[in-house]
Structures are given as C-alpha cells and as structure tokens.
Amino acid sequence: MRKQFAHKHPKLNLRTEKDLLRFLNASKEIKTKRGTLKRPVLFKDLTYLYEEPRLDWSDHPTESDSTKEKYVRSIKPGSILNTANRRLNEALRRTLDEQASQIFYGSVSKKSHIQAAGSLCNGKNTTIVSLDITRFFESISSDRVARFFCKAGCSPEIAKKLVAVTCVPVGPKEKPEEKYSLARGFPTSPRLALWSTFEIFVKLNRVLQKKFAHLSPKIVVFVDDIGISLKNATGEDIQAVKEIAFSVIESDTKDLSLKVHKNPPKLKIQHISENPEHLGLVIGKKNLSLGFKTRSKIGDVKVRLSDRTLSQEDRYKALQNKRGLMNYKRSITRP
User: Fold this and answer.
1) 275 Cβ partners below 8 Å, 6+ apart?
2) Tens of pLDDT along 214-231?
3) 54 pairs with which residues across the strands?
C-alpha cells in the first residue's frame, strides 16, 4: 500500500539530452482531444524550445482575466511546444502517478474530483474545512520547478530545458515581468504543480494525523483546492486546524509564495447538517450527491425541453446536455 506520509522525491534520472528524448518519445502515440499525437521530439526541437518557446503560446483571449492578474496560456496546436508539453505530460503521468501519496487526486491517473469528495465522508457530526490557494500556478516559480527536476535526478542542464517547456513569464505576454512561473493552462502544469509542492501537503497531513488523531482527520488535495474533514470537532479544534493549515502551506518560501484565502467565500467551514459542498458535490455521512449548480443545470435543461416551440436542433442539443448530466449523476450516486 502506498504510504500516506511519504516525503520522498521520485526519480527521473535524466542526465543528458539523449536521456530526455528517450523519456519524451517512449510512447509512440499519445491520445489528445484533437486526435492522436505521433510526432516525436527531435534534437533540433530542444534547441528551439530553449531559445524561442514564447513563439508557440499566447494568452487565452476569454479565459484570462487581467483584473485578477490571471493569465491562462494557450499553446498553438501542432507547434513544437505543444508536442513537447503533451509528450512530457504523458511521460510524467506514466512515471510519477503511481508514486503520488493517497491524499492527492488532481492530476493523478484514475482519480477524480468525485473520489476526492467521497474521501471526505466521515460519518455523522462531520465538519468540512475547504481551503483555496490564490494564484496557485503563478506562486510556483520556475526555480521551484527546476528544484523538483534536480531532486528527481535530472542534471541542471536538463532541468533548464524542462523549465523552458513548462514555465512562462508572470503577467501578460505583451508586458511580462522578469519572474518566471509555472504556466497556467499548459498540459503539464497541474501535474508539475503537484510535484513541486507535494512536500507541503504531505507535511500538513502528517501534522493533522499526529495532533488531531482524536478528530479522525481526512485531507484531500485537488490541484489548489484542499479539503479537510473532522469528526466531532469543537470550535476551538476547527480554529486550531485552520491556523496550522495556513502556517504549513505558507511556511515554505523556497521559490514559492503560496497564500491561502482566509475569508469566505473561498474559505468554507461547513457542518454535515448544512449539506456541505466541496468540489461541486454535496458530502453526506457516507455518500455524495449533486451540488447546487449541477441541480440547477438539470432543472434548466428540463425547462428547455418542456418548451414546445424549441427547434429540432436546439432540442437535440438539450437532450445531449441532459444525457450528460444524468450520466454524471449516476456516476456519483452509483454504489
């Protein structure tokens, strides 16, 4: 069984460009939403990626929000950067996912937000503490990413090349800052975010299990959303758990600047009697149910389908939408 408290870096052992290319090209074909990727990464591509990767990405026009300093990066389809990023993500998935601690659910194969929420079910008189990290990807500097690769046995030269594939300047592309961080929106970002910060959350879990064993604490990490369930917790217990969580997450400043939202609505303290929601699902004593937003969507699509003036094309789309929502409901309520 995988240890919950493992604090050991996995090993990639990429010392040369030849090692890196063998690692990236181990899978001949990679399935993507746009089809199948067959193109390998070549020696000449590594030079291009190290010198000119910014030519292959841009700020997403609709998902980026300058008022929140949130810039989602979009990679040009078919570009060298796209090929390298997707191949690297597949190689990391194949190599790292089985070594992830049990508390991690985001960016881990065969794990989902449904399983994450289900792991927080803790019987009657449960309290759910939901935490959210602000600007998570931007808070992970390129130096922190390089640190992970080096601790995983990569040479400094290879770590620099991998950073060039996965990190971009902070701020808008047209007016970038000098600081580089993990690129929000790249295929590799969620998985690298996990492995660049995993020590923090493993430590938090270890502290909770030791200091609050009487509360049967359970913790799940889904990218930047952290859920903690406590059994029979008093107000003082909850306050102590919050303070420890804030302290542990924000204490690691080695090329990190993680900050936790300390006020509602990002910070949530919910009792089981209040139908607590985490990751969009209502957590019960033993089971899950649909969250408010999904229930609202089901209600809206039923209203649309009851409209006799709805065109055949719109009715078909609504039926497809309803079918997807009902399949999602069954996946949650299935015993």
Assistant:
1) 282, 284
2) 999 999 999 999 999 999
3) none
What pLDDT, on a 0 to 100 scale, did the predictor assign at position 7?
62
Contact (Cβ atoms closer than 8 angstroms) between residue 159 and residue 146: yes
Average pLDDT over residues 162-191: 95
Judged by average pLDDT, the poorest of 25-34, 93-102, 320-329 is 25-34
Q: What digits encode the pLDDT tens for the residues 245-297?
A: 999 999 999 999 999 999 999 999 999 999 999 999 999 999 999 999 999 99
Burial (CB count <10 Å: 0-12, 13-18, 19+), residue 216: middle
The burial class, CB within 10 Å (0-12 / 13-18 / 19+), for 263 is exposed
- Return the number of other C-beta atoms located less than 10 Å from residue 171's C-beta: 17
Q: Is 0.85 topped by the overall pTM? A: yes
